[in-house]
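**Archive record**
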Amino acid sequence: MWNRIWTIAKARIIEFYRDRSALGWNLLFPFLIIAGFSTMFAGGGNTLFTVGVLGAKLPGAGPVAPQYRNLREAPTAKLVPFASRKEALDGLARHRLDLVIDPGSGRYWLDRASARGRTLERLLFTRMPAATAGQPLSMPPVSYLEWLFPGVLAMNMMFSALYGVGYVVVRYRKNGVLKRLSVTPTRPWEFLTAQIISRLIVLLASTGTVFAGCSLLYGFKTRGSYLDLVLVFAVGGFCLIALGLVVASRSSSEEFAEGLLNLIALPMMFLSEVWFSLEGARPWVRQISRFFPLTYIVEGARMVMNEGAGLFELKYHLLALALMAVLFLAVGSKLFTWQRE
């Protein structure tokens, strides 16, 4: 029994590593994302507002309205000079600018439908009460790249797990590989177990390679235990592989399987806080995200890498992933068939 399982798993691992394009993409894709974002944010702070300045002269030189005197030093505002009012207002109408100001007269223009424009207006033109001195953080700050890195690793795992199992098993069924396996002593659960073992080994190996490479290149720090991080990725990877098996259980069309996998993967990628936080999103959006396994993987990895959390803090994330994995595996095993229907 275990000889059959290991033989199938070993064959799948060898098949993956002989596919140089798939191997290269799994390793190169996360590096490209991190390299791109590191280039974009190499200058320091993030640009939150883009302000057009009339007169081709930035605030700070010559007579200007009082509310504009410190705008040039604002780390989150990018100032763009314009010689023509029409050109500046065209940029405002097309959402390339958040606000247009005339430093000499103190006049300004904004789009009332733009949330950033209204926010900038309140910051510049609302008189605020005197504030107390700012207090330093009690914990070391985390840069956006460090915050993004766990999400990129988890997203890469998601695509590798879903397509590496769901798409490949459907291809086996379409090509007749599963039909030939059905007349051997191999039972369905042995084949599924072999697929889980092989893909989990590939996931952990490729994720570990990307993690080590990016940590060396960009100096990312893991504040928690590496064993806890491996456990999060192992349980999360198992859950995603089981989800891929649900898609592959009966599908015989690669096109249908690819569309279904996209339907599953894309909402998870955008609603599991890979790229941005859902802190300000509507409550129902945040509730939907709790049904996605990627949400718990990303949160768990960030808790370990950015916050130094231990197993006790991760217990709910690991439990949710384990329950989802059991559910997906049960459904996939129940629906699985060797041949096309």
